[in-house]
Amino acid sequence: MAASASAASPRPAARPARGRRGSALGWAIPMAPAAGLLALFFVGPILWCFWAAFTNLALTGASASDPEMVGLANFREMFADGDFYSAAMLTVAFVAGSAIIGQNCLGLILAMLMRSRKAVVRTVVGGIVVSAWVVPEIVAGFMWYAFLADEGTLNSALTAVGLPANEWLYELPLLSVIIANVWRGTAFSMLVYSAALSEVPDDLHEAAAVDGASAVQRLRHITLPLIKRAAMTNLMTITLQTLSVFTLIFVMTGGGPGIKSQTLPLYMYQEAFKFSQLGYGTAVAIVMLTIGAVFSAIYLRLLRNEV
Amino acid sequence: MRRFIGLAMAAGLAVTMAGCGGGSESGSNELKIVYQKFGTYIHLDVMLRRLKPVFEQQNPGVKLKLIPVTANDADYFSKVNLMRRSASSAPDVVYEDTYVINSDVKAGYLRPLDEYLNTWPDWGQFPDSVKQGVKALDGKIYGVPMGTDTRGLWYNKTILKKAGVTLPWRPKTWDDVLATARQIKARVPDATPFNMYSGKPAGEASSMQGYEMLLYGTDHELYNSQSAKWVAPSKGMTDSFRFIKTVFSEGLAPKPAVALDKNLNTIVTTQLFPKNKLGIALDGSWLSSTWQKAGEAPWPEWQDTIDVAPMPTQNGQAPGKTSMSGGWTLAIGAKSKNPGAAWKFVALALNRENSLNYATTAGQIAVRDDVGKDPAYLNANPTNKFWTDLVSATHYRPAYAEYPEISNQIQKEMESVMTGQESPEEATKRLTESIQKIVGAEKVEAAG
């Protein structure tokens, strides 16, 4: 944004000296509060995190008041801990299941189904889907807990029609949280795809249809190539969002039973706040930050190739 | 002009930041009292609310700010520790469990109380054994005990009678407990036979009311005070895990989904027991306080239905019964700006009258001699004598700074065993590895 503003600054040759200084100040002053706040609340914690990850900082005990530098000990311990690998695999499964497959595909399907429907249908369906997204995460988590719990709505409904009840959150913890997250997140993908689909010109479709292309062929050769950029943006955003989902899982299963739904954010919480090992917890945070950065880099690269 | 804008920006930023800082610079005439209020545990909250106007009248100019923390034990400690990391949120007076005193002293969170206790006439009412429990490794005292507790078996007479058990029920071994639980399962199918706390959600209750009530009834303890080493692995450790496995895999305990509910304690005391849905509970001496008149779920007739029995040792080895004891204190934060006033509050809250009141409402075993002899205390609850007598067979948790971390690992392994993710042997192996990592392998010895 800053770059485009200075590139577009008018008549640079007319008043060279004052103009340049003016534009620098004109850029710096309005940006200062935002930059200051970002530095304070975004860069600051990350730097602190990098420091803490190499210490044995704890919430209680001697290393709470007087933490020592321990080098790479936290990372060595992490990579030797079976629970960490389990958490990493569960995180991958959770992101793949709920974001890349569930939320992404369902959002696209909904957007395409709604495309040529009446305004009333669009408003009602859109309203329902979006309301799931507007609900705060903690409320969504509790609603799903109440729905899937032992004596919850689903089991009551099942037993009412003579079907056996199940301990959903206990037997299928990961699937339960994946479905809940798809339910919550689909609206976002749907909105992105709706906007992208409205940019696809109808006459292209009609021309292809006249040439005898089937609906599937039109989807593959016309719609998908045209919304690729939106799809990439959507995928990147929801991947990063889903990677850091904590509240929903914490409320529904607490990461349990055992560690069966303990993704990296819950693992980090357990180590930092339940087991009081802040240093170790921040080391996990750094690993998560790295995973997020790698994903962003891949998506950004794919986006650039598309231009 | 530009300069002015810059200044205005800086001022604006400063204001924003100050806003973010919390702005609780209210000076030293406000005392922050931080304590737990969770589930059925409302008694301290009730007492502090009652004492607030009394204290403020006695000490003009000092205001009390009551900060109840609604969280289970594990989360309570995390929250309080986070508050203590900053002077602006650090409590002046804090509700502190005896078992975390050593690690919190090492963290520099607590203030020694010796200077006040030396001139406090009431201190003589506390027996030496109780004073030992609040003395840290540096020899100073960091908390004033509010009461102590013991642990054992509560059982529902109606259910045991239905199952054909002879009353009063006095199990001699773990197998007796399991046999009765199996009998209940067979003959009273709509009741849960046995409850014990297990796994991470119940926090310290799992370690203490659950695992250690088993372990300290075997031939091994968690810590060998003679050799000053932690004991792991041991046969007792594996046997304790095996008991947990038996209870959960045979369906003698609540379904794991319920057993891992964060509110299990509330479910047991307010639903399962009063509604005749639970046979036996391995639980704390304070359980009945919930059913008293001032409790969260009054049930005046509980004495007709509920009785108590000591938890037997594994094979009935002497002394035949076992118990664990802990207790909470009021302590003063190291960062308190007005420790004098904070002390005055502690002295008021734990004087004879208020200690008596707390012991009877919260179901605590009295620690002050004058309260212990008071007929009002002795007659308050028919089980008081039973629980007080258990002190003779009781054990204390190893009072070392590493214990809270080890306790967390115990809960983690318990959960893996109860959900079938680990065998008892694997759990012992992993727990041993964790203990070695926490305290250093040279401070751990194997047994049995």
Automatic annotation (TrEMBL), chain A:
SUPFAM superfamilies per the UniProt record, alphabetical: MetI-like (SSF161098)
Annotated TM spans: 25-54, 84-112, 124-148, 168-193, 238-259, 279-300
Topology in membrane: Multi-pass membrane protein
Stored Pfam families: BPD_transp_1
Signal sequence segment: none
Compartments it resides in: Cell membrane
ABC transmembrane type-1 domain boundaries: 89-299
Superkingdom as given in the UniProt entry: Bacteria
Principal subcellular localization: membrane
Swiss-Prot/TrEMBL keywords: Cell membrane, Membrane, Transmembrane, Transmembrane helix, Transport
Family: Belongs to the binding-protein-dependent transport system permease family.
Protein name (database record): Sugar ABC transporter permease
Source organism per UniProt: Actinomadura alba
Automatic annotation (TrEMBL), chain B:
Pfam families named among the record's database cross-references: SBP_bac_1
InterPro entries named in the record: Bact_solute-bd_prot1, SBP
Record protein name field: Extracellular solute-binding protein
